[in-house]
Write a structure and sequence with these properties.
- With 182 residues, this protein is mainly alpha-helical.
- It has one domain.
- It has 7 helices and 3 strands, in the order αβββαααααα.
- It has a 3-stranded antiparallel beta sheet with strand order 1-2-3, with helices on both faces.
- A hairpin with a 5-residue loop joins strand 1 and strand 2.
- Helix 5 packs across helix 6.
- It starts with 10 loop residues before the first helix and ends in a 9-residue tail after the last helix.
């Protein structure tokens, strides 16, 4: 598998991500996926946050509409169905194992952290634990890498092909509505 490209982080990206999260973004090392308007949708996060905390979720879904939809799917018990699929479909299970390895290889570019060695995110490689992390990985890596993330996105009412941002294009303009660009 090839490593997905990571876009360099600009100050405007951090402002948008911080607004999306409702708190200051921490440890962002790249933009892994963008909305059609140019705002970040998924960030790549350092495996060790600036305060020293290990952080296994390398691909962090930040887009509010996408995160809300993954929460809705989780509340609807979609993970139960996906765990059953993993247990019953050898091809999906094998692809999920490869997704886990790809995730670890992507994160390793930014350092190894002993406390999270061989730990990816979202329950990989053996279970489905967090659709947010798996959808983030699927968006960053592209279709066909993470089968569970792909299924979550397919069953989602949110689409990466349609902008639902509160301030479309803010990252490209250099600011966030109500927040100065400087």
């Amino acid at each position: 598998m090839t490593t997905p490209p990571f876009e360099a982080v600009r100050a405007a990206d951090i402002r948008v991500v911080s607004a999306q999260l409702g708190r200051e973004a921490r440890g962002v090392v790249g933009i892994a996926a963008r909305c059609t308007c140019g705002n970040p949708t998924v960030v790549s996060t350092s495996p060790r946050l600036p305060q020293g905390t290990p952080f296994p979720t390398f691909y962090y879904l930040t887009h509010p509409a996408a995160t809300a939809e993954m929460s809705r799917l989780e509340a609807g018990q979609m993970m139960v169905d996906l765990n059953a699929l993993l247990a019953s479909d050898e091809a999906v299970s094998a692809q999920y194992e490869r997704a886990h390895a790809a995730f670890l290889a992507d994160r390793a570019q930014f350092g190894e952290v002993e406390e999270i060695a061989n730990v990816s995110a979202g329950g990989m490689p053996t279970r489905v634990k967090c659709l947010h992390a798996l959808a983030g990985h699927a968006l960053a890596a592209g279709p066909g890498v993470n089968p569970i993330g792909d299924l979550a996105l397919e069953r989602s009412a949110w689409s990466p092909h349609r902008c639902e941002c509160d301030d479309p294009g803010a990252a490209l303009r250099g600011g966030v509505e109500g927040i100065p660009a400087g």
